[in-house]
Amino acid sequence: MSRPETDMDADVIVVGAGAAGLSLAGHLLDAAASSSPPPSVAVVEPPPGPARSPERTWCFWEEEGGGPGAGLGAPVAASWRRLLVRGPDGESLGGDSPRRYLMVRSADFTRAMDARLAAAPSVTRVTGTVTAVGDGPHGARVSGTDAAGRPFALTGRWVFDSRPPRVLPPARTTLLQHFRGWFVRTGEDRFDPGTAELMDLRTPQPRCGLSFAYVLPLGPREALVEYTEFSPSPLTGREYEAALRHYTERVRPLGEFTVTGTEQGVIPMTDGHFARRAGRSVFRIGTAGGATRPSTGYTFATVRRQSARVAAALAAGRTPLPPRPHARRHLAMDAALLRALATGRVDGADFFARLFRRNRLDSVLRFLDGGSAFHEEVAIGLRSPVWPMARSLAELPLLPRRPSAVMPRSGDSHQRKAPR
Questions:
Q1: Which end of the chain is more exposed for a tag (fewer CB within 10 A), N or C?
Q2: Is residue 355 a contact partner of residue 394, using CB atoms and an 8 Å limit?
Q3: Are 60 and 69 in contact (CB under 8 A)?
Q4: Angle 361-368/374-382 helices, nearest 10 degrees?
Q5: pLDDT in the model for residue 169
Q6: Burial 192-229 (b: 16+ CB within 10 A, else e)
């Protein structure tokens, strides 16, 4: 139910209805199953238009021992047990994975969560543009305007703001993971539906940073083919199209094919500190709360884990401060890698090829997903370019944190800038 014109009270207000906001709302319902009465929840989402996130795919590794999408509550579009990385010279790396790699389409996830929230009497949906979030005398207040320009104000005991940050925090190093993907249908069988190609490093490389293609087959003749860069700024639309044409015609020729859909995005890769708390009763979740892994851009699995912990804390009557999304040692290693890539001390394509060539696949996957043990991380570190990484790590305490630029929106086009 949408009631943008009405002031209301709720125990919990969730601002934003993307992956983080909807995940939290779903986990609140799970945790409230044993509560009587369950806490009231208001979910505030922007009206249709540019303020809403474009449709995209989210990928993650299934939990240890879990089936495809266990507990997700939304259909899994595809899954793969075999993972492949192609080195700059075409070398095939990877193999069978102990955990499946899953794809969820944002539209499917949103539809499933919309249906679930609509059936919950304790949940109210509010459509409007939020203009202010802050503490109040007895909790927090969210105010804004609906699509017709009418004001609304909500008060809640706790507020969780999942809106993506427009300005990144000060950082020593900031790169962007930016990409454009084509959903393609080929005239002949061109893909192995059982194999996800995480990185094809045969793409032309930027002077500092990294580029690769990402190929997720949906069938023998269908796949998502994505061009991705780690660099200081996005490309223009024409540059993305040229990169995809180059890959599908020269690097990995697909023959005749049709583009049936597209997706585009920008993900921050930064060693800046994202504050999880914005007031006594206001918290940030999702990318705004630091859920995005700085060295990989993976976010979806982290927001699922984070929201489950928040919901459990609320159900237990504790202050629901979102947990730290990543271990401090992982953030330190990520900061060193970002610095090494940004300065050109390491060749990005060689680094990631070496990562998969010299380490056990299950160890690499646990590291990328934030679940690796310390001894695995030591082994991975010793098999990476030791001196460039050690130099980058050692100089981090001496580097100032500088203000970062405004985050470009997913559909923005920018001219390429020289790497910093």
A1: N
A2: no
A3: no
A4: 110
A5: 94
A6: ebebbbbbbbbbebbebbbbbbbbbbbeebbbbbbbbb
Supply 305's token pair. 């884990």
Token code pair at residue 163: 């809106």
Q: Do 100 and 13 touch, CB atoms closer than 8 A?
A: no
Q: In degrees rounded to 5, what are phi and psi of residue 53?
A: -65, 140
Tokens of 336: 């060193």
Dihedral, 404, 408, 414, 417 alpha carbons, nearest 10: 20
Q: What is the pLDDT of residue 413?
A: 40
Tell me whether strands 210-219 and 195-200 are parallel, antiparallel or unpaired.
Answer: antiparallel
For domain 78-102+171-269, the CATH superfamily is D-Amino Acid Oxidase, subunit A, domain 2 (3.30.9.10)
- Look up residue 303 and give its two tokens: 């927001």
Nearest-angstrom CA–CA distance, 336 and 332: 6
User: 153-162: b or e for each residue (b if 16 or more CB lie within 10 Å)?
Assistant: ebbbbbbbbb
Q: Is the pLDDT of residue 257 over 80?
A: yes
Phi, psi at 404, each rounded to 5°: -100, 160
Question: Within 193-286, where are the H helices?
Answer: 237-246
| Predicted pLDDT at 336 | 96
Pairing of β 92-105 and β 123-127: unpaired
- Of 330, 314, 395, which Cα lies nearest the Cα of 30? 314
The full set of domain ranges for the chain reads 8-55+106-165+274-315, 78-102+171-269, 328-398
| Cα Rg of the chain, angstroms | 22
- Write down the pTM of the prediction: 0.90
Q: Say how far apart CA 151 and CA 411 lie, in whole Å.
A: 28
pLDDT in tens, 93-152: 999 998 899 999 999 999 999 999 999 999 999 999 999 999 988 899 999 998 788 999
Two structure tokens written together for 346:
């390491």
**Helix (H) or strand (E) run with residue 215 in it:** strand 210-219
- In the 8-state DSSP scheme, what is residue 247? I
List, in sequence order, every residue forming a beta bridge with 124; answer none if it has no partner: 42
Residue 313 to residue 320: CA distance in whole angstroms? 5
* Closest listed residue to residue 409, CA positions, set 163, 139, 58: 163
Helix (H, G, I), strand (E, B) or coil at 204: coil
Residue 166 amino acid letter = R
| Class of domain 8-55+106-165+274-315 (CATH, top level) | alpha beta
Look up residue 121 and give its DSSP letter: T
